[in-house]
Amino acid sequence: MRHRDATCLEQPWIIYYDDKGIRTSWSYSVFIDVSRCLATLLTQHGVERGHRVAIASHNHPDTILAYFACWYLGACAVPLNMTEDDQRIGYILEQCSPTVVLSRTDYVERVLASGVDTSIIVMDNDHDDPEFYRAIRSCEPAPWPDDSLDMRWDDCLIVYTSGTTGKPKGVVLLQQNLFVDGEMINAWHGIDQSTRMMCVLPVHHVNGALVTHATPFIAGASVVLQRKFSPSKFFTTIAAEQVHIVSVVPTLLAVLLEANVVEHRAAATSLRHIICGAGPLTCELAERFTSTYATRIVHGYGLSETTCYSSFLPVDLSESDYRHWMYDVGFPSIGTDVPCNEMAIHDAEGNAVADGDRGEIVIRGANVMRGYDNNERANAEAFAFGWFRSGDEGFRVLGSDGRHYYFITGRLKELIIRGGVNLAPLEIDEVISRAPGVKAGICVGFEHTMYGEEVGALVIPTGPDVGEDEVLAYCRKHLPFHKAPKVVVFTDALPVTSTGKYQRNSIKHIFAPWKDIQFRG
User: Among residues 123, 358, 401, 435, which one has the fewest Cβ atoms lying within 10 Å of its Cβ?
Assistant: First the structure.
């Protein structure tokens, strides 16, 4: 932070658009000065190195200030996803035991309702002369840390997993994890002081916090932060702010296609590419987006447990190589492993499998988390064979350039086990999404009397006249009978987490009426 304060000065750091489209801007020098004052305010409330600070907020520069103030002190930020239910918020606050909670006015009552026994600093500046900023202005900037102080191995971020079942697990990341992964992302994507990124993803997640904030800060770049994603303003904002790179999840690609804002893309001449990960991307969706918007998707893969990204497609692939790895193998490649970690495909006993064979994606390296917070059982399972076990099924193929290209086929816990045969959801999703009359769709494994599980499809139709029979017929034409959906349920929306991951297991119950039906080929 001291280096950026000396080198970037009045260079723009964060440009913020609120939900009314009002634009504000923070320079590096102002942001750093205010974050140091916030660090002083936190110390006045008892926060010390190693303490935890929970943050009940949303996409806003104050949230980023809170992160950096914590990291400046050597404290650990615990962002709360305020779209979650009160029970989950209460559980996280109880588990992380924060010294203080930084909360926007909108969320104070919910924090109080959790019963957490800690002080709350109301963090709000969306009205004239807010108390929060009066308090900060009354503080002197915290002194620069002693040069001999090494905080690389300090806990700096705890992100709670967004699983659909069981209690959330706190992923503990170190300052070193953020620096290593951030420097890798900068090098991979050519991010430097002249680069401008845009954040449309929630900053309570590692993608929004790391890829489009910590990473460009390390490079001295700038960020356009959006309060909320708006498909109608996506390309117009890129054009107005001369944005070079945006990080998204596949759901947002689908929303942009639905919005049909092709005419806005022409003006966004600064856009180099779009980073996409953190959710299931199909070849069909990727090809439609790339051809419609003439924008290359740099597909990647990672988890909160690996500080966001562990692999990327190379950004300099030729068009033929790009199309091969994105469309010709049946799944869009998540790319090659990045220099700060190793990836492999293992079987259930921790042995490497042959190229092309499916197994679990495993990772080890400097960007892998310290562990799950206060959860020895989960840590023992996750690191059983010396690698972090992702829980994702995939395979790899050796490219002509000597690098292994990885592919993800689905979550192991979401695998559909029909009659003892494992079926990969993403393979079936790919076919469902191409079926006539399907705007978007996913497969769901539901309980079945004869086969244990059977395959269903949850589909958003293109119109009211789309029928189940035509969707099923298309799927049976392109899939063997045991993989093809046997029933279609139409819906207005697919169940996703706040980061765009499908929640298949949360909607198994809607297929209960077909539990005892015997389907014939």
Answer: 401
